[in-house]
Amino acid sequence: MILAGIEFTCESVIIDIMSQKVIIIISAIFVGLLLVGALLMIIENKIYHSVAMKADEKVFIVNKGERSRDIAQQLVEQNLIASNFSFQFYLWQKGYTNYLQVGEYSLSPSMTIAQIAKKLRKGQIIESTITIPDGYNLGQIAKALNLEKDALVDYDMSTLKYDFLSNQDSLEGYLFPDTYNFQKNNLSVDTVVKTLLDNFDKKLSQPLRDEISLQGKTIQEIITLASIVQREAASVGEMPAIAGVFYNRLEIGMALQSDATVNYATGKSLRQATESDIKINSPHNTYKFKGLPPGPIASPGLDAIKAVVYSQKNNYFYFLHPNDGGPAVFSKTVEEHNKNRYIYLK
């Protein structure tokens, strides 16, 4: 009995000790959970509360190859966020860690970590508004966008899959002139080409394409002539009539005699080509070679394209622009044209 009692007492002690351990473990877990919960609350508070209520925006740059922790540290140093750890935790939580976009951003201390992280993940970089005027050629477009001089002229077109570029060896004429928003300091040639070609594809609507096909013409022929009309016309209003003049010349096999095409060949921008210029041996010299030049000489705007597709039917074969800047003067015969030259160009 005594031995049994002793055995019972030992078992009770063991159970007691185990119970205490369980209580300690449970208590530790509970305290740990409380601490984790408190930590998460602190982190959540930092994630969804900004450093300042009101503050000016500042430029923040994410460079290629930078790690998320480096970006977080820079954000802290620029007083855009309060916690490096909270920023990285949020990136991990959302799966953004390896997907922050390179570029130049406009951020403010009044933005929360969540707002900043989302902006960097989506690549909402500072944009610049750039206008490409109607009639710009590839060199002028490149200059307007601060690209290398021949970046567009020498562009490899082998990967482009646009139907209107079939059998084309140059982008000239097809980079649509318009106003664009490009990401500042992150502008690649590929981005420019795709953006402008996509816009051309959109602006050359199906009704326009159907009409071109109905007339038995090709898109290249239309854009080539439209580029000439764009460079020759002084106003949108006279474009259809000038297109009509060029069509009349083409119909009878007369040379287009466009000064704009000669300028394209010489690289000049003269109002009237010189006697020596119109003798140069270039396929773009429409004084020397009849028919359309081998391709566009610039990017025509939609007005010029429509003027060529829906040209004015007239009996004119000549036109000129007076020295005083007045509207184009049209003539049916060379004699009438020479008379107008004497009157308006003296």
TrEMBL record:
Keywords: Cell membrane, Cell wall biogenesis/degradation, Lyase, Membrane, Transmembrane, Transmembrane helix. One of its GO terms (molecular function) is lytic endotransglycosylase activity. It is found in: Cell membrane. It is a single-pass membrane protein. Its main location: membrane. Its EC number is 4.2.2.29. One of its GO terms (cellular component) is plasma membrane. Gene3D superfamilies: Endolytic murein transglycosylase (3.30.1490.480). Pfam families: YceG (PF02618). It catalyses: a peptidoglycan chain = a peptidoglycan chain with N-acetyl-1,6-anhydromuramyl-[peptide] at the reducing end + a peptidoglycan chain with N-acetylglucosamine at the non-reducing end. The chain crosses the membrane at residues 22-43. Belongs to the transglycosylase MltG family. Functions as a peptidoglycan terminase that cleaves nascent peptidoglycan strands endolytically to terminate their elongation. This is Endolytic murein transglycosylase. It comes from Candidatus Portnoybacteria bacterium CG10_big_fil_rev_8_21_14_0_10_36_7. The gene is mltG.
